[in-house]
Amino acid sequence: MSADDEEVHYPYAGPESMMQSLGMGGYDEEFPYPKTVARLRAEAADISRKEEKDIFVEPSGENLLLWHGVIEGPPNSLYEEGIFHFDIHINDGYPTEPPKVSFRTRIYHCNITSTGDIFCDALNRDWSPTMGIRDVLKILVDLMRNPRPTNIRQPGHHLRQKFLHDRADYERIAREWASKYAS
């Protein structure tokens, strides 16, 4: 075997070297899950290639565990013409566990708390590992078009009662808030 035919063996340099060789940037000791990172990078690339109409989302800089987004209130909804900001917080259990989504813009909605947390089955018990960030975006648009007061697991949620028993006032306040906080 000549010197040109010799196999070269490189010592394993640890996870940081592996991540860099896979094009995944630096290694973060708090988030050593390369499969999750790879999936999130692929989802970010897919979303940037095929953006959704009236909604935009991207990772927060290099932090793939926090995404920031903006959604226009869907046409013919209570939130029409509003511009709503939201965050998607992803934990190390993703995609087996759903991300936590919260609105940063105040919104009067029976599935969204005063702190912006979203309560709906699609982002909780109905979540599946086959779902991803694009599905989250579709869920948000659908919730804005079709509030689901029966889909709330939070006891004592007063907006649920308002939606079910005084729909006209609920709709008036939702439009008022969209105009006041999301313009």
UniProtKB/TrEMBL annotation:
**InterPro entries recorded for this chain?**
UBC (IPR000608), UBQ-conjugating_enzyme/RWD (IPR016135)
One family from Pfam that matches here is UQ_con
Q: Where is the UBC core domain?
A: 35-183
Q: What is this protein called?
A: UBIQUITIN_CONJUGAT_2 domain-containing protein
Q: Which organism is it from?
A: Steinernema glaseri
